[in-house]
Fold Cobalt-precorrin-6A reductase.
Amino acid sequence: MTTVWLIGGTSESRLLAQGLVKRGVECVVTVTTEPARSLYATYPGLTVWVGKLKGSSLDEFTRSHDISVILDTSHPWAVKISQLAIAFSECSQIPYLRYERPPVTDDSGSSQIVTLDSFATLVSGDYLTDQRVFLTVGYQRLPLFQPWQHQATLFARVLPSAKSIQIAQEAGFTSDRLIAIRPPIPEALELALWQHWQISLVVTKASGNAGGEAIKRQLCDRLGIPLITITRPKMSYPQQTEDIEEAIEFCLSHVI
């Protein structure tokens, strides 16, 4: 039987990997860091590959692992690996499916939620002035907020890695305005942190329930503070689904 290349790094990818190997399908999951590897349980037929793939190395990677199908479960904001996989799928004729985690739907009509189309719109506007802002946007985007360090009081949550902490500090975040912790974050801890820092505005990415977006919406509504949500990057996928079982069946139909 051939192998599924599962582009990982999300909680859904762990569920899909488990579901595939339990059905007897061999699966190689690609992640970019060693901490991400440790999140996957050990199963017969499951390989976790750590590193950053490039277009020049994909042909060798897929041949060495006997890949017959690509299941993209990467984070909604990890557009580069999705673009790479789609392009490779088209030229190699290897079937590709995107598992896209469902967006958070909010029918409450809350006036606390502000949706913006980009980080550029946020930092070029006047949304942050004189606010105590909690940023849950990933360490890579913290440098965008460096010019705001003297116009607002900024706090950030980052992953517990030396690289993320270093980039945050270089962007002007002092140790008393940083917390390094790996999601998911319990609601009680989230609430306590916001209250301790006296947060008046929260900024997050539209990352779905698995990214904790729903909890942030609920807490902002409860505390009466605004939540700014940055919409997902626009991507055109050849095929996609929000159903985990459908994604597994797609893989089963293409392994030999």
